Amino acid sequence: MADMVLGPFLWERMIRAVEKVRERLLRTVAALEHAGIPYAVAGGNAVASWVSRVDESAVRNTPNVEILIRRTDLDRAVSALTAAGFVYWNTASNTQFLDGASGRPRDAVRFFIAGEKAGTEDFEAAPDVAMSELATGFLVLNFEALVRMELAAFHTTNHVRLRDLIEVGLLDASWLDRLPPELARRLQELLDTPEG
Question: Is residue 182 part of a domain?
Fold first, then answer.
């Protein structure tokens, strides 16, 4: 740490970091809509959209933009985002777009493919983009599809997001009977350990 050069503590830098994610999300959505590509916002921005309906002070910021599209639209989506200034960056497990030539993986737009598992360890495939509804300025996964997608992945980040939904009262034990046994077990684990 002695060799690390730190910038000043600036409130403006923190605000700008949040604004950059929103701008990246809106540019992505605009490119997809302009190309007529069905999509749904997933992940942290989708969770934040739902949490904000109940308690805006409980909204958690995310550095990521996660978008659900259909496999049949992937080539057109690559063209649309490339035309919007994003740089296609495909890895073995992810289809991502860096935000310009100097973009970093942490700031990437990540695509999930509807009807496919995002990771081999996921319990079930991602939902279809049709399972969405209009939020402010973009289509977001509907609540049940979002919950199932987060429970299916069930990594630490997903735990945090699901606990945010639990904390504001959107997700509770009444959901246990609506879910397949494994997803219900995962939700029960979170309900039993609200502090993590």
Answer: no
Query: In the sheet that 87-90 helps form, which strands lie side by side, from edge to edge?
Result: 87-90, 95-98, 109-113, 65-69, 40-42, 139-141, 132-134
pTM of the model: 0.89
Q: Which of 123, 166, 47 is nearest to 189 (CA)?
A: 166
Print the domain residue range for 96.
Answer: 12-142
Nearest-5° Cα angle at 52, 50 to 58: 110
Q: What are the pLDDT digits (tens) for 84-142?
A: 999 998 776 678 888 888 888 888 899 999 998 887 788 898 999 999 988 878 999 99
Question: HSE (CB half, 13 Å, CA atoms) of 146?
Answer: 28
Does 57 reside within a domain?
Answer: yes
